Each structure stands twice: as C-alpha cells, then as structure tokens.
C-alpha cells in the first residue's frame, strides 16, 4: 500500500513538522528531544508499517505509531501545563492528534478484517 495516499500519514507528518518548529526554541532540551522523538515516530512508523509484507507486521508497527501518538499527547499536555509549549494552536494539535489515533485504530481494524 502506498502510505503517501493515507490521510493519517500526511496529517501526522504535517503535525510533526508544526510541532518540531514550535518546540525547537524550548530551553528544556530533554523535553524538546522527547516531544520531537514521539512526533517524528508517528508518521515514520506508519510509513514503515505500510511497506511490510504481512498484515500482522503492519498491525504491530501501527500499534507503535498509536503508542507514539499517546506519548505525544501526554508530552504536549505536560508542556502546556508547565508553560514550556506556548502556542495558540496547541488545542488544535491535540485534537488533530486524537483524530490521528482514531484513524490508526480504524486502520488496524481494517487490516484485521482483511486477513
């Protein structure tokens, strides 16, 4: 499957770029590094999953993407509460991330049904 055509890959890629640009100025290196890793992992894991040969491999790696998305949500909420991430669109980022998680769960479900 061509992952470039997947909404969830394109949206998670766009979200990662926006977040990376905003947190690049964060003075808390450990936080910036962790947010960056989780944000980059979501589209990276989707891409990796979709080039795998078996549906079982795809599902397993998509669960990694779901986990990274949950990490990103947690880190953004912590960053917001600590005022380490101050951006007018942070609520929009969190909503987009939730839609990404839902879409990933649906993709996993579709892969299970196509066995």
UniProtKB/TrEMBL annotation:
Superkingdom assignment: Bacteria
Pfam families assigned: 23S_rRNA_IVP (PF05635)
Alphabetical list of Gene3D superfamilies matching this protein: 23S rRNA-intervening sequence
Entries under NCBIfam families matching the protein: four helix bundle protein
Name used for this protein in its record: Four helix bundle protein
Species this chain originates from: Idiomarina seosinensis
